[in-house]
Design brief:
By secondary structure, this protein is of the alpha/beta class. Strands 3-4-2-1-5-14-13-6-7-10-8-9 form a 12-stranded mixed β-sheet, with helices on both faces. The protein has a two-stranded antiparallel sheet with strand order 11-12. The radius of gyration is 20 Å and the shape is globular.
Length: 352
């Protein structure tokens, strides 16, 4: 889409209606800075958003629309691409249900379709509950897999971004046993390239990439496993031959300590928790006295797609849903990242 006035249209999904998803979406769109950056439109059930506005006494008006063209993008009046698929009388905060899963899934599928049709310039997703999605009959491990399926994308990766910490994964939603089996040279090379391209599209200038070892001490020359020498090192060597600024395998306990200082522009993690744990230590701030999060920051970007997708990198937080205490920090950052990616894509198209 060649959008006018340099403001991309950003579609933002509701997430699970029984979660904090609707709350953080509305709170993010009460931030005037968002309307300076883009034209935001929520995608989901308008009744769910209206209920959260009334329940939390938020200073907003929900405006249902049936097409993107009908949106007005005015601060204080929030446009919702209304799917009208939630029975608000049956909805219970913090509960897993097929109804909530179906509504969350429909919002994701719709926003993908809108992006593929060039009706919107970028997509941002709220948190979903994987069990609810599966109870609704949609057997996907998460957002990343849904997007890959409906965009027919074979090579993709999950990139997490928060300040100086930028982490992409060789594998994500699989068992630890499967994750070890997926540490292969070709996949690691693929992910290095995805990360390199992601750093450029985010406007980063530090393109140095650190690749984590799989085993303790990166295998210690085969003493603690062979994957580091047989799969990761050959991938790093080949990446260097292709011109990437990359080093590894580096023992993970050393790698992430250096990454936190900005030494690396980005990190390749071998599996989900290897990347997520240090990342969330950076962006998630727990208040022990209040027994709640003061701030939940971090953006999840799916690299390799033909469309732009960013997301909050936290879960549904069922335990605080509907209580008005959820932080919209991550949603704001996800929208900002989507805008950056949309502007980079537009610039790239104009220079072709």
């Amino acid at each position: 889409m060649m959008y006018k006035d340099d403001k991309p249209i950003v579609g933002i999904t509701m997430g699970d209606p029984a979660s904090i998803g609707p709350e953080i979406a509305v709170k993010a769109l009460l931030n005037p800075a968002i309307y300076e950056l883009c034209k935001p439109i929520l995608v989901g059930d308008a009744h769910v958003f209206a209920d959260i506005v009334a329940r939390l006494n938020l200073n907003a008006v929900i405006r249902p629309v049936k097409s993107v063209q009908d949106a007005q993008y005015q601060l204080g009046t929030i446009d919702v691409y209304d799917l009208n698929n939630v029975d608000i009388d049956q909805l219970r905060f913090g509960e897993i249900s097929a109804m909530a899963g179906e509504a969350a899934f429909a919002a994701v599928k719709t926003v993908i379709e809108l992006a593929l049709a060039d009706e919107i310039d970028a997509t941002v997703t709220g948190p979903i509950n994987k069990k609810s999605i599966n109870e609704a009959g949609h057997h996907f491990a998460g957002h990343t897999e849904i997007y890959a399926h409906y965009t027919n994308t074979k090579k993709y990766g999950m990139l997490l971004v928060e300040d100086q910490m930028k982490v992409i994964h060789v594998s994500t939603h699989v068992s630890l046993r499967q994750a070890c089996d997926l540490v292969k040279k070709d996949r690691i090379l693929e992910v290095i390239e995805l990360l390199h391209n992601g750093l450029i599209s985010l406007g980063e200038t530090n393109l140095k990439i650190g690749v984590a070892g799989l085993n303790p001490h990166a295998g210690d020359s085969g003493l603690f496993g062979t994957e580091d020498d047989q799969e990761i090192l050959p991938a790093v060597d080949e990446a260097k031959r292709r011109g990437f600024d990359v080093e590894g395998p580096v023992p993970a306990d050393t790698l992430f300590a250096k990454a936190a200082t900005g030494y690396y522009g980005g990190i390749v993690a071998m599996y989900h928790d290897q990347g997520h744990i240090p990342f969330k230590l950076t962006g998630f701030k727990w208040n022990a006295e209040k027994k709640q999060m003061d701030s939940v920051k971090g953006v999840n970007i799916t690299m390799g797609l033909p469309i732009i997708r960013t997301s909050v990198d936290h879960g549904t937080a069922f335990e605080i849903a509907g209580k008005g205490v959820a932080s919209a920090d991550a949603m704001v950052l996800a929208i900002e990242s989507a805008v950056q990616l949309a502007k980079y894509r537009r610039k790239s198209l104009l220079t072709v």
